[in-house]
Amino acid sequence: MTALCGGGASQIKSGVAGQNIIGGGLISEGLTLISPWLLPLGLFIDAFLFDATAQCTSDPPAVPTFTSDDLTNCIGGVLNPNCPQTLAKVKDLLLNWLWFQFCECSTTTTPSFVQPTPPSGVNTPGGTVSAGCFSGSFSGTPTQDSTPTTNRPSNLSLMPIGATSNHNFGSGQIAQTVQIPVGQYTKLHVTGSVSFPASATKALVFELNEFNAAGTFIGNPFQTIPASAGSTVPVDVTIAIDATAAFIGLEVVQTDEPHPSSVSLSVLYSCTGSTAGGVATPCPPDPAVAAMLNQIYQLLTLIQRQQVPFAFIPGTSHTGLSGSGEITFSSILGAKVNPSAIPNWSGLSVGDPDELWLDSWIAWGNADGFISREFLTHAPYISMPRYAGQFTRLGYTLAPGVTVDITELIRES
Length: 413
Description:
Layout: E1 10-12, E2 19-22, H1 24-34, E3 48-51, H2 52-55, H3 69-72, H4 83-102, E4 103-105, E5 134-140, H5 148-151, E6 177-179, E7 185-195, E8 204-211, E9 217-219, E10 222-225, E11 232-240, E12 247-253, E13 262-271, H6 287-307, E14 312-321, E15 324-328, E16 334-341, E17 347-349, E18 355-357, E19 361-366, E20 369-370, E21 374-375, E22 381-383, E23 393-397, E24 403-411
Antiparallel strand pairs: 1-4, 2-3, 5-13, 6-12, 7-11, 7-13, 8-9, 8-10, 8-12, 14-24, 15-23, 16-22, 16-24, 17-18, 19-20, 19-21, 19-23
């Protein structure tokens, strides 16, 4: 018993398999149709199994409520601690949508899927898309049996997902009639190849059977592939879909003739406002996407300036340091240590630069400790540790008579 069906029973739709693998392609297609603004998150959703046998006898997960944080949560990928909870919402949304594709109420009219409301500040793209709104494929051998349950192969995926209503189109068919949104699908494009038997003399027919919302037959436009006995020939067929069609079924048939030994077909559907393979029109700016790009830009700028800087500029200067001690700071690139007083006992090796022997050193560290010390060997001496961003303090140990000025080196702004 399901609340969705008013407390009545629910069931699998006719023609739907009990076990359905939902892969990346269908996840992307589903999010494109129901919530395009969530499409970037589809990359993080792994393929999963929709067990229609179990799912269709109970209510689907509730449609989740999304906020603008749900997009920014996953900017850094699945390692962001807040990303998994957003992905769980997306998974629930897909499961809810798939319930309406595969399941129906048994005794009452099945309600329509309710799309989630985009968060404030998130725009749904309004441009046309260059890809087809659905694509499918089939590879196999047509049979001559006219019983729909035996001549519709189990791996058939030529049709868009929808409420099924099967019709018998005759012998040798590869066909499944499916319900489609009226006016949404505008044409289908069949490509692939067909292998004809040695005795073939009649053309292979691609016939689109169309029915209106009342189930009345309204037409069957078709295209043919001339027979080529004993040969494999390419298929490239385009058939327009009637704007009033609510059910369509693609039939692939040769009558009164040995049927093709095998076919390998792909079907791409075009939708209203979309021409498969065409040029996409611009979409309006999306504030959420702009915010995500800006965060990525800021992160890249930080990485460039911290790890591969073009230059640095002087920051706070600590003067007249002697003996031992440490200075503290945050987020610097390095330090410039300039001896301001050098005792006459210090050694000197003349060169370019001169090498000093001051018996003095510095060491970079943070709250967890210090790394290896660096001896001061030049005047001035520049120290730029590889991971300077991790350090928050700089210790110094200066021999008697040695005085230095330490200047923090920071990122250019």
